[in-house]
């Protein structure tokens, strides 16, 4: 509905400009011979092309004035009247020029310039190809043609030609403006999500109108008109208890944006790994709040930097959650994740996990299953986990520390 209202408003503005242009063109030469080049009889029997339309609209209607060298021919005691160049409105105080009425000096007939150029097959043949010269019923016939549907439709076509804008173009322009505004809103949202993700800050709160993302977006709205306008739209919809057609800040769209950003980051990581085609995989897991094993998969490889030079880095490429932690399931999931990311398993030269049996086992452990696919993937027991076992064995010598750790474990099991 808003699109239609804006289109109607734009057309009204165009009509006002069109009237100004037509008034400027309505300068009639006093010499009738000056209008011979735009005599409608020269155009009524041939196909009108774009150049003809531009020429006739620029010259205006052929409306000669009687003078010393020209007078309207008389037929059966009747002749064309110059008053017909104008239309008297209902109060008879204002005369509106008929800019569509054009007189042919060569044939002593009048034509409709608008219908000739834009009427098409719907237009009256009398006013487009034959010409009209029934001077007896002049005012009545001209008024009837001026209010006919084909003539009004031709006037609309004329307006669109003069303004070089059609309704479709106006709607397309409005759609382009809406798309650009949405892009500005999404750009602000991307900046907000990117900052919170880099700082490892939770995006959402307990309610839809709270949380770090929403508040940060409102803060950006102080400096971005697009973000401020979008926040106003959201708050207005909530005040009226109406649901927006598309809410870029919704949970689903936020998650979609995070997934896209994740894929872009992984693509950059894979692009760097492809330069050497050598990397190691690191995997570790822990139970999340849903009592499922959440496993992270990292790549360790050499990153080349022009400033600091080559250096080893570890990059996260995937996080997956499952109810199983068996070596077979982990191997299947990791291989699928590597394939999805574009990492060839033959590029893997090392693998590092903890010392649990499901990953370290010689028969069905994760490291053994990976080595069956790629024998070059040397397994290294994670030194961080080994150091943790050393500390745990050391502090167990103290009864108080051992009891404290046991109590913490029991509390964890109880609350879980």
Q: What can you see in these coordinates?
A:
With 416 residues, the protein is an alpha/beta fold. Helix content is 50%, strand content 13%. The chain has helices at 2-25, 50-59, 113-118, 125-130, 138-146, 149-163, 167-198, 212-220, 225-239, 251-274, 327-341, 357-360, 366-373, 383-395, 399-415; strands at 86-88, 95-97, 101-104, 109-112, 279-287, 293-303, 311-322, 348-353, 378-381. It has a 5-stranded mixed β-sheet with strand order 7-6-5-8-9. A hairpin with a 7-residue loop joins β6 and β7. The protein is elongated, with a radius of gyration of 41 Å. The relative contact order is 0.05.
What is the topological layout?
Layout: H1 2-25, H2 50-59, E1 86-88, E2 95-97, E3 101-104, E4 109-112, H3 113-118, H4 125-130, H5 138-146, H6 149-163, H7 167-198, H8 212-220, H9 225-239, H10 251-274, E5 279-287, E6 293-303, E7 311-322, H11 327-341, E8 348-353, H12 357-360, H13 366-373, E9 378-381, H14 383-395, H15 399-415
Parallel strand pairs: 5-8, 8-9
Antiparallel strand pairs: 1-2, 3-4, 5-6, 6-7
């Amino acid at each position: 509905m808003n699109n239609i209202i804006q289109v109607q408003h734009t057309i009204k503005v165009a009509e006002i400009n069109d009237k100004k242009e037509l008034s400027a063109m309505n300068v009639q030469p006093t010499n009738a011979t000056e209008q011979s080049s735009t005599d409608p009889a020269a155009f009524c029997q041939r196909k009108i092309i774009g150049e003809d339309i531009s020429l006739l609209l620029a010259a205006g209607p052929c409306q000669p004035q009687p003078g010393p060298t020209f007078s309207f021919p008389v037929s059966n005691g009747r002749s064309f009247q110059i008053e017909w160049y104008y239309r008297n409105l209902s109060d008879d105080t204002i005369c509106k020029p008929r800019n569509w009425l054009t007189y042919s000096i060569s044939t002593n007939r009048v034509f409709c310039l608008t219908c000739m150029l834009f009427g098409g097959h719907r237009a009256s043949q009398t006013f487009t190809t034959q010409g009209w010269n029934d001077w007896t019923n002049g005012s009545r016939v001209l008024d009837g043609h001026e209010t006919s549907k084909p003539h009004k439709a031709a006037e609309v076509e004329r307006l669109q030609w003069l303004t070089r804008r059609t309704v479709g173009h106006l709607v397309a322009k409005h759609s382009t403006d809406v798309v650009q505004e949405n892009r500005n809103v999404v750009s602000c949202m991307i900046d907000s999500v990117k900052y919170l993700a880099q700082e490892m800050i939770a995006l959402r709160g307990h309610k839809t109108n709270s949380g770090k993302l929403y508040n940060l977006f409102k803060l950006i709205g102080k400096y971005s008109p697009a973000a401020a306008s979008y926040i106003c739209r959201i708050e207005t919809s909530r005040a009226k208890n109406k649901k927006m057609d598309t809410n870029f800040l919704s949970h689903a769209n936020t998650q979609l944006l995070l997934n896209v950003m994740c894929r872009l980051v992984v693509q950059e990581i894979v692009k760097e790994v492809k330069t050497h085609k050598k990397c190691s995989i690191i995997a570790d897991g822990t139970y999340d709040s849903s009592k499922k094993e959440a496993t992270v998969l990292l790549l360790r490889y050499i990153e080349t930097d022009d400033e600091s030079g080559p250096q080893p880095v570890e990059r996260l490429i995937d996080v997956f959650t499952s109810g199983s932690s068996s070596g077979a399931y982990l191997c299947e999931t990791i291989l699928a994740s590597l394939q999805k990311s574009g990492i060839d398993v033959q590029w893997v030269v090392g693998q590092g996990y903890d010392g649990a049996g499901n990953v370290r086992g010689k028969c069905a452990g994760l490291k053994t299953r990976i080595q069956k696919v790629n024998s070059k993937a040397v397994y290294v027991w994670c030194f961080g986990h080994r150091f943790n076992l050393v500390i745990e064995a050391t502090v167990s010598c103290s009864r108080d520390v051992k009891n404290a750790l046991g109590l913490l474990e029991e509390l964890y099991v109880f609350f879980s």
